[in-house]
UniProtKB/TrEMBL annotation:
C2 domain sequence ranges: 22-159
Family that this chain belongs to: Belongs to the copine family.
GO biological process: cellular response to calcium ion
Cross-referenced Gene3D superfamilies: C2 domain
Pfam families reported in the protein's UniProt record: C2
Stated name of the protein: Copine-8 isoform X2
Classification via PANTHER family: COPINE, COPINE-8
Biased composition (Basic and acidic residues): 150-159
Length: 159
């Protein structure tokens, strides 16, 4: 058994059943898995999903982004976050990295409205621009938080 499997064995004994009345709640439990080991805490948040079946096609480009790399230009990518009912944000999409440019054009992508804003077009979406680094320590370059409606009408973040 690998070290990850043995140290994470407690997950197999953890069961969570959520019925319809759990929306908007936060459940916290302490793991009791491996005797003598401190396994941590599991936090489960739930939000009732809208029955929206729409999808949106989006494409973004950047213009004169900040140069973040010491050598060359930037390697930018976008991270999209949906806002939750409790005010926190959850990643819902990441774009590809566009190498060595300050004026990137990202590929168009299709995303379900449920994933982006749970059908609420006035809900905030946070968009962050990162400069990709090989070591994984990506640098935050820009950040914007428009409502879903603004992005769908072409009035979204200015990158």
């Amino acid at each position: 058994m690998s070290s990850c499997s043995s140290s994470c064995a407690w997950i197999a004994s953890f069961y969570f059943i959520c019925s319809e009345d759990c929306a908007g709640r936060r459940f916290v439990t302490t793991s009791r898995g491996i005797p003598g080991k401190k396994c941590g805490t599991i936090i489960v948040k739930a939000e009732e999903l809208n029955n929206c079946r729409e999808s949106v096609m989006m494409q973004f480009c950047g213009n004169k982004l900040d140069k973040k790399d010491f050598f060359g230009k930037s390697d930018p990518f976008l991270v999209f976050y949906r806002s939750n009912e409790d005010g926190t944000f959850t990643i819902c999409h990441k774009t590809e990295v566009v190498k060595n440019t300050l004026n990137p054009v990202w590929q168009a992508f299709k995303i379900p409205v449920r994933a982006l804003c749970n059908g609420d077009y006035d809900r905030t979406i946070k968009v962050e621009v990162y400069d990709w680094d090989r070591d994984g320590s990506h640098d935050l370059s820009e950040s914007s938080a428009p409502a879903a409606r603004e992005s769908s009408e072409g009035r979204g973040p200015r990158l």
